[in-house]
Amino acid sequence: MHWRGLTSAVLILLFIVQSSGDPVVDNDHGRHATRPISEEDLDRMLETTTGSRQKRAPEARALTPSIVRTIYNIPGGDTAGSGQTVAIVVAFGASSAEADLEVYSTRFGLPSCTTANGCFKKVDQNGGNNIPRDDPTTPISSSWLGETNLDIQWVHATAPGANITLVCANSSSSSDLYPAVMTAASLADIVSLSWGGAESLQSNFERFLANASARGVSIFAATGDSGGPATYPATSPSVIAVGGTTTLTESDGIFSSESGWSGSSGGCSNFYTASEAQQASGSGTDPCGTRRAVPDISFNGDPTSGVPVYVDGSYVQFGGTSLATPIAAGRAAAVKAFTSDIRVIDSFYIYNNITLRDITSGSNQNYSAGGGFDLVTGRGVWTGDLDINTPNADENMKITHLMISETMQTKLPMSMVLNVVESTQETLSATTQTRATTSATATSMSSSALSLPAITFFSFSLFLLL
Ligand SMILES: *[C@@H]1O[C@H](CO)[C@@H](O)[C@H](O)[C@H]1NC(C)=O
Ligand SMILES: *[C@@H]1O[C@H](CO)[C@@H](O)[C@H](O)[C@H]1NC(C)=O
Ligand SMILES: *[C@@H]1O[C@H](CO)[C@@H](O)[C@H](O)[C@H]1NC(C)=O
Ligand SMILES: *[C@@H]1O[C@H](CO)[C@@H](O)[C@H](O)[C@H]1NC(C)=O
Ligand SMILES: *[C@@H]1O[C@H](CO)[C@@H](O)[C@H](O)[C@H]1NC(C)=O
């Protein structure tokens, strides 16, 4: 596999630094040139998900919404998530996002989700109507609009019945994104964050996240696509950190196997301790001790086993922990919608109340996936909930069930007490965070002398080699 995008990534970074003067940048290590998906390929993908079981050509194997709902055993079928709202936090406006979602919904047979029907809402970082300008980055599929469309379309694909609130931060600075997270957590009880930056001590934001979690808000955050150390806020003990897998299906769309994705960032936090639930479960204590160990869970993230996203007038195959995270948020919405219980999906829930497909192969730069918790995929892939007897939606799912051995973990007492490690060190070297843009990011951060981390988003689109 040959990755491209180094030059454009650096240029994008420099452009943003120069244009805004903002020390905190979208450093774009995860973005690459795009693999277009033709309308014919889409037709073939859809044929296999409407029961005809035709063999899919390799170029038509991107995972469709119904395949993803099936292989992750998401309850609720076509109305999964109904009555729930998922808030998605992104940088910049996204003027075409709603229209693009409508094109996507029509193409994949998903319900319409628009402002007009009350399903879709877009607000600024304060919850108002002052929507910021679009990200000027080109190509558009590599801009925050690409990220935004990936997030929106894949929350809708996994939880078609859920409402979506898009919270648009003024910029990719954490000084805008963190307030946007606070707004999101006041508007919805499920929040999806497909971005992050180098770890640093964020005491105020940590207090906010701990409070939001204690109030029952589920915040899902991507660990990053570098395959190296995980980014913040995924390393916060008050969020659910989502890593990536490579998810393989047979040519007819039936699940075949899943392994840890090499780009799935993970490891031990240098700033934060594990939630009490994580500590009590023993997950990550080897080698992290009481330090926060991430990810917690994983979903498909490898761009080679990626998904179609409609952006800038055509379909592009996307992956990254930016894909895994909205799938996690969508699954959470589906679970909450499926039972009449009032339930909180938090670190305790993830360590006590779910069933998993343990991922035992694959590795990132520093760690290998293995039985039980690991620093590539966390506990594994969230495929069930201990108290929910998810009805099999279709034949694919039965086959999937036969192939999956689910792991049950010991039940432990609940506590949301968090221990935040105080540290004088303000930022980690950005060089541990990035590939393509390492030097530019590090320069930017050291010249800024601020403690705000560089923010990266984690969509990953694939370039088709001819
Ligand atoms: C959710 O969306 C539906 C339309 O799909 C709308 O009728 C409803 O008012 C929305 N609920 C909330 C809480 O926004
Ligand atoms: C966002 O940017 C606009 C235009 O630059 C500005 O008017 C507005 O005050 C900013 N909002 C926040 C919350 O910073
Ligand atoms: C969260 O913060 C609010 C406002 O400061 C406070 O009223 C509330 O009790 C806090 N909730 C929890 C669960 O800590
Ligand atoms: C989650 O697990 C705890 C500990 O076993 C249990 O008390 C609680 O009822 C479970 N919650 C759900 C929603 O199943
Ligand atoms: C993980 O790998 C990266 C890149 O190879 C390296 O810079 C970093 O120090 C490693 N971290 C640990 C904890 O081994």
From TrEMBL:
It comes from Planoprotostelium fungivorum. PANTHER family: PROTEASE S8 TRIPEPTIDYL PEPTIDASE I CLN2, TRIPEPTIDYL-PEPTIDASE 1. The keyword Chloroplast does not apply. GO terms for biological process: proteolysis. Residues 1-21 form the signal peptide. It holds the Pfam family Peptidase_S8. GO terms for molecular function: serine-type endopeptidase activity; tripeptidyl-peptidase activity. This is Lipoprotein. Belongs to the peptidase S8 family. Residues 62-403 form the Peptidase S53 domain. Keywords: Hydrolase, Lipoprotein, Protease, Serine protease, Signal.
